[in-house]
Write a structure and sequence with these properties.
The protein is α/β, with parallel strands linked by helices. Helix content is about 50%, strand content about 15%. The protein contains 15 helices and eleven strands. The strands form two sheets. The protein has a seven-stranded mixed beta sheet with strand order 7-6-5-8-9-11-10. It has a four-stranded antiparallel beta sheet with strand order 1-2-3-4, with helices on both faces. Helix 1 runs antiparallel to helix 2, helix 1 runs parallel beside helix 3 and helix 5 crosses helix 6. The longest helix is centred in the middle third of the chain and has 55 residues.
């Protein structure tokens, strides 16, 4: 008798990881692709590249605008980057729930990110322009808004990589390590391109607002196009319509805002600068705005929203800065900053001046001071005087090239040390270079910011100058005028100055010069007393490797 055959054993499973129960469906390859798997995989990596570039542009845009509006770029960069990195981790975890719907999830996330990232700069600037001074109830408004944008964008950016990983595995299953390496390589290279494009292409050519809006449009086109074309078989009819409407709405809004950027900027400037903007231009990464000068209104020169020259308080400030430093040898004078010509005007009122070297950080400011009739009248056309020589250079580099004992007076007319770009110009190393440039009997004078609102910064400047081997006399001059002297719309109530020399200088005025409008020997004596009442002793000096003005 023939025995029946025993049942054949089951075939062994194909090599590779076994699908886990309860997880997203496993794809050995997508049969509905409109292209070959290799091409599809390349397109997903290209999408990761562009999305990473856009994400980094959003981060840098927030840092740049927040630094411009609020100052202290170190703090703003720390807030944005730390919050965004944290939120990216949370977003990656949250994206695990969307893996089953990776295509529609990725498309909607990119549309949302394009909308929020593209509009973030315009929203921040609008709040700044139409709320005026961020004080009182708005004291924490800017940073709260900055944190909200950073948090939301970080969540969305963090969700991109897990969903892209799922999509690339649907095209062609590969080992997890290889897929992660490919995807992260595309992501990091995209971040490099976005990081370089922002300062060298988007910011100088398009500006902050248009650059952010254009980045959002690219983000929406790449995200929506990748899903619609490559993974359209994974979308339900309802999902297709939802994604189509969302992307068209986002692109339409971004296009409309781009068309209105010019009108928006003009309206915002009128709100910030009291509706009297005559000149507005971009000097590198710095916004230069000139207001007034007509109908009896004095001209005002703003750099990045902060008043640097002009206004009703112009004469008290420049007299207090220059006149005490000139009460001694003053044949050769170096002015660091002062591209508006107003400090040089006060210098030239003293007999015996033979040479004035002005080191301006931006040539556009000097051109305005030369060519604008109102500003030229205000500075008494000092740049036409043959004794005045102007150069455009970094003040620190300029001092390093200055020979020993080259000047009798060094005047530091620079932005406040609280702005990170200026911190190195208030460091012990900088004052050491200034000390070397001073001739015997020479004097250094430094504008160290408002004393009443920032006494610690003021006395840190004074301590830093002393650490460089100079003797100091700090003094505080009250601003009794009605004009603002800080951020547009904000009134600064005093100025702090430090007069320094190798031996303790005497605070006084040159009797041979014309009498100042506002200063007297008695007021200078009172200015020393006023400053000393705010003294904070034993503050450590600020150095290049340990700046103490941020925070």
């Amino acid at each position: 008798m023939i025995e029946p055959h025993a049942p054949a054993p089951p075939a062994p499973p194909p090599p590779g990881p076994a699908p886990s129960s309860g997880g997203p469906p496993s794809f050995g390859g997508s049969t509905g692709l409109p292209v070959r798997p290799g091409t599809g995989r390349f397109l997903v990596l290209a999408g990761a590249f562009f999305c990473a570039a856009c994400g980094l542009v959003y981060e840098l845009e927030l840092v740049a605008l927040a630094s411009y509006l609020m100052g202290d770029s170190v703090t703003q960069a720390s807030v944005v980057l730390s919050v965004m990195v944290f939120a990216m981790g949370v977003g990656s975890l949250a994206a695990k729930r969307l893996r089953r719907h990776a295509a529609i999830g990725f498309g909607l996330i990119e549309a949302t990110l394009a909308l929020i990232g593209g509009c973030s700069a315009m929203v921040l600037y609008a709040v700044f322009a139409w709320t005026g001074d961020w004080g009182g109830v708005w004291a924490y408004g800017p940073r709260c808004l900055l944190v909200v944008f950073s948090l939301v964008m970080g969540l969305l950016i963090g969700a991109e990589v897990p969903l892209l990983m799922e999509l690339i595995q649907r095209i062609r299953r590969q080992d997890a390590g290889g897929a992660v390496a490919d995807l992260f390589a595309a992501d990091y290279v995209g971040a490099l391109v976005g990081g370089l494009a922002f300062p060298f292409l988007l910011l100088p050519m398009l500006g902050q607002l248009t650059g952010a809006l254009l980045t959002g449009a690219v983000n929406a086109v790449v995200g929506g196009g990748l899903v619609f074309w490559l993974f359209r078989r994974d979308l339900t009819p309802r999902g297709r319509w939802l994604l189509l409407v969302a992307n068209l709405a986002v692109l339409g809004l971004l296009a409309s805002l781009t068309a209105l950027v010019g009108d928006f900027e003009r309206a915002a400037r009128r709100a910030v600068y009291d509706g009297d903007v005559r000149v507005a231009l971009q000097s590198g990464e710095q916004e230069v705005v000139l207001t007034g000068g007509t109908h009896g209104r004095p001209p005002k020169l703003f750099l990045d929203g902060r008043l640097r020259a002009g206004g009703h308080d112009e004469h008290p400030y420049h007299e207090a800065l220059v006149r005490p430093a000139m009460a001694g040898p003053h044949a050769r004078v170096l002015i660091l900053g002062g591209g508006d010509g107003l400090a040089a005007r006060e210098v030239l009122r003293h007999p015996g001046v033979e040479r004035v070297d002005v080191v301006a950080p931006a040539p556009e400011i000097v051109r305005l001071a030369r060519g604008d009739p109102a500003l030229a009248r205000l500075n008494a056309r000092v740049f036409d005087d043959p004794r005045v020589r102007v150069s455009t250079a970094d003040a620190f580099c300029r001092l390093r090239r200055t020979p020993k004992a080259a000047y009798d007076v060094v005047i530091e007319d620079l932005p406040d040390p609280g702005h990170t770009a200026s911190t190195k110009l208030y460091a012990q190393e900088f004052y050491g270079l200034a000390r070397r440039a001073l001739a015997p009997g020479g004097r250094l004078v430094v504008h160290a910011g408002p004393v009443s609102s920032r006494p610690r910064v003021f006395w840190t400047v004074e301590s830093t100058i002393r650490a460089a081997g100079l003797r100091t006399v700090p003094y505080r001059v009250a601003d009794r005028a009605s004009g603002s002297s800080g951020t547009a719309g904000r009134t600064v109530h005093d100025w702090g100055f430090v007069l320094a020399a190798r031996t303790t200088p005497v605070l006084g005025l040159d009797p041979r010069a014309p009498r100042p409008r506002t200063l007297t020997p008695e007021s200078l004596t009172a200015a020393v007393r006023d400053a000393d009442r705010t003294r904070i002793p034993r503050l450590p000096p600020s150095t290049l490797v340990h700046p103490r003005y941020t925070g």
